[in-house]
């Protein structure tokens, strides 16, 4: 075969191709055979499973009826028929009427091997509408015949596939040799013989040309020939390059870069310097004649540093280095010089001279020094601020970090530079849109009382975002973060004090142990319902001992409404428990955690609390106040601290009810109207009463702390001021009041709407 394919000695690729083709073909042959055998195995097992299904649907009921009639002969006939199903080897029937486990009839033999499928079918006979299990049918099938057939199938398939694989691999190898390998050998021989003297000979492959489209082999041959032509052109252009080099020297003389070469001796005598050294105030002839050495023009304050740096580069074995220093021209003018130098060594590695370029960057250095001074001034100013200052770019990556931020977080600027703001301050993730909006619209934004978790303790911060004008680096912003934890705690103390005054009024209307008798009532009702239920076995046993039909007793109690009374008692008890629970929840100290809730639910809960306020009922009764509800459907939820908003609404209801109690109503009833509306990006809540109203002076001062129109001992004047603080500062909302004397009052609250829209 080797001679037929004309494979030469030393060629490796044909053999590798043959091996890889055989390996891949064998792998896919075995894989395909395995899949085919597995599918046949699944088909045979499926036939056996169908036999089990036929036994279950066609034989089980008949055998159960024969076993019920004790007709064993008929049972055996049915077993003989079932044994003819595919794969079935053993069937037996066990009667279970008398606790026996021995078969009453069986046929076939249990296979000895482990390749069996066994199923048990309960034999159920229906008599007088009741199902009675009379026995069990055991069916055993084996897979030996299946595996024998599959082993024979494996041998046949693998043998035929192996022959096919070998022939296909041989044919592919022939094609590859004809189309690829022989041409690669020709190109290799051409490359080995190529030199300058043979560049004129073109690479030609022995291929048939019948106007066919060039393939990859043709393209490689074209690449060889193109490379040959490129070499010819490169040789021709080399002379042009030499001429260009001469002209480039002329360009250097007119550039700001000064070329130099000096010897590695004391004070560095100059061997070569370009004529444009005159721009630094020197003459090239002075250096070339030895009149002036390069070391002599270096600034005295920098000379020792330059010598030390150069010696350090030499000792380190560096072949190229850069450094900056000052020189002084004959008139005393100082220049800042930057040089890029190559170290020249002899055969022994000793440094003989230096080659390089030097240029004047005095103006740039002066600007850099001024910029550094301004940066230090700005940094000192920023670091002296007690507020955390964090600069971010338009992608919210940190690019500024003052000392207060470093002390507060324990992170240096090097640790946070380029980091996402939200990764360093995860508490600001919810404010991302606020910061991005400030950057995009170039408007100042702020948000107050944001909770920060610090070592398990909650701190509150106010943030203010100042956008930066667009520059070469894009837009950005400065984020100021103030710690207002102590201030927030004082404000929370004021809110809690007012809340506790309301809670005191609520708690006075209920006994301390109200939950104990309430629990006993609910427990008793639940126990009564359980002991009357016919579904409990113990109830039936006790009723039978007394000669009672518990079902009829239950029907009697249902028709007489007794069960309804019990359910009513249970519902009333749960409502009472809910009232107590709401009051206790309201009395707990707020943790200022916000959730997305519907204002309708908060209004109804606050109404429920107000209606059960004992102190309020001494002067007025909510039962005589008509509550009108005008709720808009499909309002968005609001993100609020639920207990704080409950306190606001409860305070408004309390003030409205007290005001209406002071008015004499003749033709109308005291009315409290609750109204909700979607108002742009806000949810608007209106609480309107038809009480005596307020004059303009009172209306203007109604939110002032300690201002009250009530008699001494009836109010502190903090209720509405605290409520105003909760709405405007804690929730970024608005709190307004509209009133005319004699025409009632309307309190208007606008809360920012959340993103989630839920149906009320």
TrEMBL record:
Domain of life: Bacteria
GO BP, sorted A to Z: regulation of DNA-templated transcription
EC numbers: 2.7.13.3
InterPro entries recorded: HAMP_dom, HATPase_C_sf, HATPase_dom, His_kinase_dom, HisK_dim/P_dom, HisK_dim/P_sf, PAC, PAS
Top-level EC class as recorded in UniProt: transferase
Primary localization: membrane
Domain PAC span(s) in chain numbering: 321-373
Subcellular location: Membrane
CDD domains named among the record's database cross-references: HisKA, PAS
Keyword terms of this UniProt record: ATP-binding, Kinase, Membrane, Nucleotide-binding, Phosphoprotein, Transferase, Transmembrane, Transmembrane helix, Two-component regulatory system
Domain Histidine kinase: 509-755
GO molecular function, one term: ATP binding
Tagged with keyword Secreted: no
Catalytic reaction(s) noted: ATP + protein L-histidine = ADP + protein N-phospho-L-histidine
One Pfam entry name: PAS
Residue ranges crossing the lipid bilayer per the database entry: 17-39, 154-180
Family annotation (NCBIfam families): sensory_box (TIGR00229)
The name this protein goes by in its record: histidine kinase
């Amino acid at each position: 075969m080797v001679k037929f394919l004309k494979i030469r000695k030393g060629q490796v690729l044909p053999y590798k191709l043959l091996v890889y083709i055989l390996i891949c073909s064998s792998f896919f042959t075995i894989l395909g055979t395995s899949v085919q055998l597995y599918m046949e195995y699944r088909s045979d097992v499926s036939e056996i499973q169908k036999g089990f299904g036929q036994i279950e649907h066609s034989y089980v009921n008949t055998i159960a009826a024969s076993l019920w009639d004790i007709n064993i002969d008929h049972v055996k006939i049915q077993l003989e028929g079932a044994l003819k199903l595919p794969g079935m080897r053993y069937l037996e029937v066990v009667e279970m009427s008398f606790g026996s486990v021995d078969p009453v009839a069986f046929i076939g033999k249990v296979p000895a091997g482990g390749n069996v499928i066994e199923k048990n079918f309960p034999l159920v006979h229906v008599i007088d509408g009741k199902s009675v299990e009379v026995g069990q049918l055991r069916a055993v099938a084996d897979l030996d015949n299946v595996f024998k057939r599959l082993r024979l199938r494996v041998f046949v398939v693998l043998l035929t596939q192996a022959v096919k694989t070998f022939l296909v691999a041989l044919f592919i190898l022939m094609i590859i040799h004809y189309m690829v390998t022989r041409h690669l050998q020709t190109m290799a021989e051409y490359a080995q013989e190529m030199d300058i003297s043979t560049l004129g000979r073109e690479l030609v492959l022995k291929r048939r040309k019948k106007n066919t489209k060039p393939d990859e082999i043709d393209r490689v041959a074209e690449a060889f020939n193109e490379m040959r032509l490129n070499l010819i052109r490169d040789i021709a252009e080399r002379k042009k390059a030499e001429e260009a080099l001469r002209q480039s020297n002329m360009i250097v003389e007119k550039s700001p870069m000064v070329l130099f070469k000096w010897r590695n001796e004391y004070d560095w005598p100059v061997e070569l310097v370009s004529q444009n050294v005159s721009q630094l105030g020197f003459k090239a002839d002075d250096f070339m004649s030895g009149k002036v050495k390069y070391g002599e023009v270096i600034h005295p304050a920098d000379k020792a540093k330059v010598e030390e740096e150069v010696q350090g580069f030499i000792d380190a074995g560096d072949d190229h280095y850069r450094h900056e220093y000052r020189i002084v021209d004959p008139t005393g003018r100082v220049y800042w010089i930057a040089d890029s130098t190559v170290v020249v060594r002899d055969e022994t590695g000793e440094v003989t001279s230096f080659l390089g370029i030097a240029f004047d960057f005095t103006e740039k250095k002066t600007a850099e020094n001024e910029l550094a001074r301004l940066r230090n001034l700005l940094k000192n100013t920023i670091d002296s601020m007690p507020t955390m200052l964090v600069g971010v770019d338009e992608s919210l990556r940190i690019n500024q970090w003052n000392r207060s931020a470093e002390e507060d977080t324990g992170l240096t600027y090097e640790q946070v530079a380029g980091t996402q703001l939200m990764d360093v301050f995860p508490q600001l993730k919810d404010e991302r849109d606020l910061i991005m909006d400030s950057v995009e619209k170039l408007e100042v934004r702020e948000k107050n009382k944001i909770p920060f978790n610090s070592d398990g303790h909650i701190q509150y911060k106010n943030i203010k975002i100042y956008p930066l004008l667009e520059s070469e680096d894009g837009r950005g912003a400065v984020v100021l973060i103030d710690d207002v934890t102590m201030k927030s705690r004082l404000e929370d103390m004021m809110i809690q004090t007012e809340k506790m005054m309301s809670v005191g009024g609520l708690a006075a209307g209920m006994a301390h142990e109200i939950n104990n008798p309430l629990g006993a009532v609910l427990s008793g009702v639940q126990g009564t319902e359980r002991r009357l239920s016919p579904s409990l076995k113990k109830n039936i046993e006790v009723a039978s001992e007394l000669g009672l039909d518990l079902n009829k007793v239950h029907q009697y109690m249902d028709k007489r409404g007794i069960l309804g009374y019990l359910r009513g008692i249970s519902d009333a008890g749960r409502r009472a428990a809910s009232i107590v629970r709401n009051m206790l929840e309201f009395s707990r100290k707020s943790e200022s955690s916000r959730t997305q809730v519907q204002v309708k639910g908060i209004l109804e809960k606050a109404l429920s609390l107000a209606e059960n306020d004992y102190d309020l009922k001494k002067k007025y009764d909510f039962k005589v106040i008509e509550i009108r509800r005008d709720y808009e459907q499909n309002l968005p939820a609001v993100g609020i601290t639920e207990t704080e908003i409950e306190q606001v609404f409860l305070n408004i209801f309390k003030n409205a009810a007290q005001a209406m109690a002071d008015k004499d109503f003749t033709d109308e009833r005291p009315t409290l109207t609750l109204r909700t509306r979607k108002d742009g990006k806000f949810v608007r809540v209106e609480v309107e009463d038809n009480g005596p109203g307020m004059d303009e002076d009172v209306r203007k001062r109604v939110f002032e702390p300690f201002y009250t129109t009530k008699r001494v001992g009836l109010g502190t004047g903090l209720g509405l001021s605290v409520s105003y603080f909760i709405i405007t500062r804690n929730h970024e909302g608005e709190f307004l009041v509209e009133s005319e004397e004699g025409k009632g009052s309307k309190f208007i609250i606008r809360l920012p709407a959340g993103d989630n829209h839920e149906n009320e």
